[in-house]
Design brief:
434 residues; mainly beta; four-stranded antiparallel β-sheet
């Protein structure tokens, strides 16, 4: 008896994409999002994975105890969810970045009592799928805090920082081998409290405090291991600013100056023209420093941090006492174009546990999935209902995000599959005779 049933769905699947009105009518604007539902904090760590943002660790200005909690923000629902506490314990001034579906945190300081300060060099990996922290090889440089970190492809980078010295060294971590390799030292000299981010195969570090406050801005080429100075940051001298990149643009704002006055200005750097342009001030009227920043698709996000009081009241060597730390969270929509990401699946209906689903994206020339894949098409076999997202970038450098949720019936198990017909994106699934 042949009980073979064919599950064939045309690519008229339900399509999920960002609303177009957001891309074209709301540009160069800040929108408040849900506050971090935990203690406000400064000097926290943040990064993004797919369509989720993450903030954790840091220090609150009143109780002065370093935090170890770790929170996930969903771009689609604007909801925060607490995840497993950071595996390395409470700390502030650490470094964070993401590679694929993994997040990484390392270095930092675990105490606010100056007589008992302890500076770290441990390095930890968080798995978005399992919500588990695993310790990896220690950072190969000297223990420090207020360093810079970012990722390029499957490599992570940490450099600069302070204690006991001002550092300019720069290190590369290989995700596949768990090995650190020293690269060319940062071209701008030793400093801490700088901004760092990546655009394509290039890394960028700027501003900070070394022998004086800084406004210089430098580019590192992953291919040649060479630092090149670019146009000075347009907003002037500062330390503890916040930054991120969107497409071929970099952004820096906030921070504090030589008099410990806080900024809320915001600036855009164009990789193609090497020019800075002032944009709309950060949404909060309060100047801030020690803030977290990251981007998701074609939107930027900043949150947490602290405002300032006049110079003279010190709780951390070299750092002014904040009037209060902040827990707000803001979304930035930049000027310019937005790619329309279209994502579809076959089958487009509820599937069985372990059944292959063929997911396809269009609208760009390059693709980056929250699974870590980089092609236009992926094959998934979810065991539970799962949301997949892709960031597309078109030939003009415009970006957009598409998301798709694959519902899974836990009472149904797929145990057989016919050979894939790639042209029709067709699969046949049936119970196995064995």
């Amino acid at each position: 008896m042949n009980n073979k049933s064919t599950l064939v769905q045309l690519l008229t699947a339900t399509l999920f994409s960002l609303p177009l009105f957001e891309a074209f009518s709301q540009t160069n604007t800040w929108t408040p999002k849900a506050n971090l539902p935990a203690l406000s904090r400064m000097y926290a760590v943040g990064f993004s994975i797919g369509n989720k943002g993450y903030i954790g660790a840091g220090i609150e200005s009143f109780n002065l105890f370093p935090s170890k909690d770790f929170w996930e923000w969903d771009q689609a629902s604007d909801v925060w969810t607490q995840k497993a506490n950071f595996g390395g314990g409470g700390r502030y001034g650490a470094v964070g970045f993401s590679i694929g579906t993994k997040g990484y945190i390392g270095t930092g300081c675990n105490d606010i009592t100056i007589s008992a300060l302890s500076y770290e060099k441990d390095f930890w990996e968080w798995d978005q799928t399992t919500n588990i922290w695993v310790q990896k090889a220690d950072f190969a440089g000297t223990s420090r805090y207020f360093a810079v970190g970012f990722s390029i492809g499957a490599k992570g980078y940490i450099g600069t920082g302070i204690i006991p010295n001002l550092y300019s060294d720069f290190w590369e971590w290989d995700q596949a081998s768990d090995v650190w390799t020293q690269k060319a030292s940062f071209g701008g000299g030793g400093r801490y409290g700088s901004v760092g981010f990546s655009i394509g195969s290039k890394g960028y570090i700027g501003t900070g405090l070394g022998f004086g406050h800084k406004q210089d801005f430098w580019e590192w080429d992953q291919t040649t291991d060479v630092w090149t100075q670019k146009a000075d940051f347009g907003g002037g001298l500062r330390v503890d600013a916040v930054g991120f990149s969107i497409g071929a643009k970099g952004y820096i704002g906030g921070g504090r100056d030589v008099n410990s006055a806080c900024f809320n200005d915001f600036w855009e750097w164009d990789q193609g023209t090497n020019t800075w342009l002032q944009k709309t001030n950060i949404g909060s009227a309060i100047g801030r420093y020690g803030t977290v920043g990251f981007s998701i698709g074609n939107k930027g996000y900043i949150g947490s941090g602290a405002d300032c009081v006049p110079t003279g009241t010190i709780i951390i060597t070299g750092h002014p006492k904040p009037l209060f730390s902040l827990g707000d969270f803001w979304e930035y929509a930049p000027d310019g174009c937005t790619a329309t990401a279209v994502i579809s699946s076959d089958p487009s209906s509820t599937v069985c546990v372990g059944q292959n689903v063929f997911i396809s994206a269009s609208g760009g020339t390059t693709y980056s999935w929250n699974t870590g894949a980089t092609g236009a098409n992926i094959v998934a076999a979810p065991s539970v209902t799962t949301t997949y997202s892709v960031t597309v970038t078109d030939a003009a450098g415009c970006t957009g995000i598409g998301t798709l949720t694959v519902p899974v019936d836990p009472g149904c198990t797929a145990t057989g599959m016919a050979q894939l017909n790639a042209e029709a994106l067709r699969a046949e699934v049936w119970p196995s005779p064995s």
